[in-house]
Amino acid sequence: MNKQTLKNLLQTTSLILLLLGIQTCISQPIQKIAFGSCNRQYLEQDIWPKISEKSPDLFVWLGDVVYSDASKITKYLPIYLPNDIDTIADHYQTQKDSSAYTQFLEDIDHRVIGVWDDHDYGKNDGGAEFELKHETQKLFLDFIDEPKTSPRHQRPGLYNSYTYGDNPNSVKIILLDVRFFKTDEDLLGDQQWQWLEEELKTSSAKYNIIGSGIQFLPSDKPLTEKWGSYPGNLERLYSMIKKYEVPGVILISGDVHHAEILQSDCKDIGYPIYEITSSGLTHSVSTQFPSITQPLFPMLMHSELLKYDSFLGKNFGMINIDWENDTLDLELYNDEGILVQHHRLENQLGDHPCLAGTGVFGWTLWSKGDIVKRVGSIVTSIFLLGVGLYYLMRS
Q1: Cα–Cα distance between 143 and 114 in angstroms, integer?
Q2: Of 185, 194, 287, 339, whose CB has the highest number of CB atoms within 10 Å?
Q3: Phi and psi at residue 124, in whole multiples of 5°?
Q4: Cα atoms found within 13 Å of the Cα of residue 90, Cβ hemisphere only
Q5: What pLDDT was estimated at residue 12?
């Protein structure tokens, strides 16, 4: 049986299952899950061979697979304006035609899933108001070669779940769309919240990996778009995890142009929740801003939930599961494929005690002294950043 015949058979089977209302899953367990975000299609695509060297079983896009809305002024100071749909399509095609990315897809046998953030959505910080969202949804799904029988082609929004392996060695990956339905108060919209609750309620997976284009945990970062910017959203997610006693939750995210591992204080869930953020694949803080300004970023982007200092270079992430020894490794690699951060979780995550922490929900949990100290750091940092950019623009 040739590859095309097999592909047609799988698509037909998926359609039958979809019509019957049965969720499809892949019975073979996976061990290595790679992921990344923030990929400018016109920059050097030199990180893909380094990801291939790690032999991932799957790659997960976590947003900004292209910058479809980007209009550059300078290397360091881009502005973002919405484009027409033909221009957006051209940006997607440019990335898909990249020889390095094409080779990467062949290396991992096209095992790619993903969800978008704002720049591949089509509008910087965009939400439900974006007029071309139905058209860009199709472009995104075609870019990742989502089967035409997938429910993502049949409904608005890119949210979806994928289950790999059978119990007890199963992983469920839940990808959330934080753009299509977003309003000033809510990230997901009623339909997606209802779907998410059902996914968590019915999950029998040992590990439940939840992905988002923006960060979940660090509500104390003042300059980034995050779940904590939308009152009640993170608490609602936490309450679902607690209500249905969902085991082994790991959060993955992108967006911020640096990489880091964070840990929540678990808010009475029963075990700490970890988030691993990987951003970006083609550019990052270390490549976007002059070296004179880079020491400011630990002050501007610091979170009390960080396990380690943020990594500011280009990067990709890995989750490595050892089923035999019951461990899960959170890993961050630089663009040379060198491990820069690592955190091992032993035994099933649900068996861990809830660790004390400083709180997930940011400003309201700080003392007055903490607030004064943080505001002072931000004001000083912005001033120094402005000085650096002023001299840069003059040079």
Answers
A1: 10
A2: 287
A3: -60, 125
A4: 8
A5: 44
SS3 343: strand
In order of 137, 252, 288, 303, the CA distances from 272 in angstroms are 34, 15, 33, 16
Q: For 87-140, how does the pLDDT look when each residue is reduced to its tens digit (9 = 90+)?
A: 999 999 999 999 999 999 999 999 999 999 999 999 999 999 999 999 999 999
How many other β-carbons are positioned within 10 Å of the β-carbon of residue 371? 11
Strands 171-175 and 160-164: antiparallel
From the number of C-beta atoms within 10 Å of its C-beta (0-12, 13-18, 19+), residue 138 rates as: middle
DSSP result, 32-43? EEEEE----TTS
Residue 365 has pLDDT above 70, yes or no: no
Between residues 155 and 221, the one the model is more confident about: 155
* Residue 278, token pair as written in the block: 């990987």
Four-point Cα dihedral 251, 252, 258, 264, nearest 10? 0
Quick: pLDDT tens for 171-188. 999 999 999 999 999 999
> What residues have CB less than 8 Å from 333, skipping those under 6 apart?
50, 54, 315, 316, 317, 318, 339, 340
What predicted TM-score, i.e. pTM, was given to this entire model? 0.84
Strands 207-212 and 249-253, sheet pairing: parallel
Distance separating alpha carbons of residues 307 and 260, to the nearest angstrom? 8
Question: How many angstroms separate the CA atoms of 178 and 325, rounded?
Answer: 35
Concatenate the DSSP letters of all residues of 54-103 into one string. Answer: T--SEEEEES-SS-TTEE-SSSS--EE----HHHHHHHHHHHHT-HHHHH
For 251, the enclosing helix (H) or strand (E) is strand 249-253
